[in-house]
TrEMBL record:
Family the UniProt entry places it in: Belongs to the glycosyltransferase 15 family.
Annotated protein name in UniProt: Mannosyltransferase
Entry's localization field: Membrane
Coiled-coil segments: none
Cellular component GO terms held in the UniProt record: Golgi apparatus; membrane
């Protein structure tokens, strides 16, 4: 039974005829990036990319919309079966060469910081997060922390943070420039208020919280421009009241560097479609004008999936609403500073959707990654046990391992079974990861 949309698959096959063999690029998981001079090796000539065909793919649902309910359920079950199989595997860490261990020369030497946007009132909650991250990872590597706030940090906040970290640890406390935080002057306040009344009536969370809109815009297009981050390449975002359950005995930033990753995530789920009603149309308008920014190996299927939550796809006129949950993310800031991402942000800013709707930094970042980055450079840290209510990424440990503290249930996405439908990870596994990537954590 052919459950995938035949039109989509025909387009995919057609595009493949224009693309070089990508297999040699998809095994980056198996080796670090080499600086060896290979000028004597004949270069493979790149075939031209047929951007028109990619644009057609991005206008086509992943699955045939004539599928009946039984076919739809069978395909969803098949995707979740793959997810369950992967999550049932005992793992410890990526099974690759060159992981940087604590106490070795490169440990803690990546150009990286741990980043948090917090307010003074969050002090107890962010201390809880920091203590767990120090216990599981950073006490062994000593990366600096960067705290950002739209107001001045209090002396009490600074003192309490300093007290829980080693004296030699570098800590940045930054007040955000009001121009980067506040609602822009070109936003029509009356239009904004009317739009938020409508979103509130549709039960869109935080729709009337101006600071939330500001935060989404800031984390989408402004945070990486702050002076304090200008000399950093990587930033690991953390938030108050999250949990880390397992020890991490390798330098994750060095892993990102050595294996040429632009993004690291743990959770991947659907968004409220009402909050991003026009985001996909606005995005497609941009890529139609700038098709050369598209990556031929983008995660197109993931954003065009249309059967698990078809209402989301319909409300947004063509976007699954799948997104990486950015309360945990490890960004390669060079990607955010790149021309495609910056031009995309300028386009989104010009439309006002951070305020006339409730465009979140998570769907914005995720669409940019899916469209402009090679999907093989987006890494699922399945070994990092992470919880942000109500969702968890919890790996299964070998029976003789003491790596995890036992406070999460392996493979359990949420304590609420009705929320399992919100999990986009099965689609990511099916369409955006190679077999080698799926086997990356398998213990030999």
């Amino acid at each position: 039974m052919d459950l995938a949309g035949s039109t989509y698959n025909q387009l995919l096959d057609y595009v493949d005829t224009f693309l070089p063999d990508l297999d040699n690029n998809n095994d980056k998981e198996d080796r670090p990036v080499s600086n060896t001079d290979d000028s004597s090796v004949p270069k493979k000539v790149e075939e031209p990319v047929d951007y028109d065909s990619i644009l057609k793919m991005l206008q086509t649902p992943l699955y045939n919309q004539t599928m009946d309910d039984l076919q739809r359920e069978e395909k969803i079950k098949a995707n979740f079966k793959l997810y369950d199989r992967i999550l049932a595997q005992p793992i410890i860490e990526p099974q690759v060469d060159g992981l940087v261990r604590p106490g070795t020369p490169l440990a803690g030497k990546a150009n990286a910081t741990i980043l948090s946007l917090v307010q003074n009132k969050d002090i107890n909650a962010i201390i809880s997060t920091i203590k767990q991250l120090e216990d599981t990872f950073n006490s062994k590597f000593g990366y600096p922390y960067t705290f950002m706030n739209d107001e001045e940090f209090s002396d009490n906040f600074k003192q309490r943070i300093s007290e829980i970290l080693p004296k030699e640890r570098l800590i940045h406390f930054v007040k955000i420039n009001p121009n980067d935080w506040n609602r822009p002057g070109n936003i029509d306040v009356t239009k904004y208020n009317e739009a938020m009344d409508k979103l509130e009536a549709e039960d869109v969370q935080y729709s009337k919280k101006l600071s939330y809109h500001n935060m989404c815009r800031f984390y989408s297009s402004k945070f990486y421009h702050q002076d304090v981050l200008s000399n950093y390449k990587y930033a690991w975002r953390i938030e108050p009241n999250v949990n880390f359950y397992c020890k991490i005995d390798y330098d994750v930033f060095q892993f990102m560097e050595q294996y040429d990753k632009v993004y690291g995530f743990t959770l991947n789920l659907y968004d409220s479609p009402q909050s991003v009603r026009t985001l996909w149309e606005t995005t497609f308008e941009f890529i139609k004008e700038n098709p050369h920014y598209l990556n031929k190996n983008g995660a197109f299927e993931w954003i065009k999936e249309n059967i698990q939550k078809p209402r989301n796809f319909n409300i947004t006129n063509g976007y699954s609403t799948c997104h990486f949950w950015t309360n945990f993310e490890i960004n390669n800031l060079d990607f955010l500073r790149s021309e495609p991402y910056e031009r995309y942000m300028e386009h989104l800013e010009s439309k006002g959707g951070f305020y006339y709707e409730r465009w979140g930094d998570a769907p914005v970042r995720s669409l940019a990654l899916a469209l402009f980055a090679d999907k093989s450079r987006i890494h699922w840290f399945r070994d990092i046990a992470y919880h942000h209510f109500p969702y968890t990424n919890c790996p299964k440990s070998p029976f003789d391992s003491n790596r995890c503290n036992g406070n999460c249930v392996a493979g359990k996405f949420s304590p609420y079974p009705n929320l399992n439908v919100e999990n986009c990870m099965p689609t990511w596994l099916e369409y955006s990861m190679t077999e080698d990537q799926l086997k990356l954590y398998e213990i030999n």
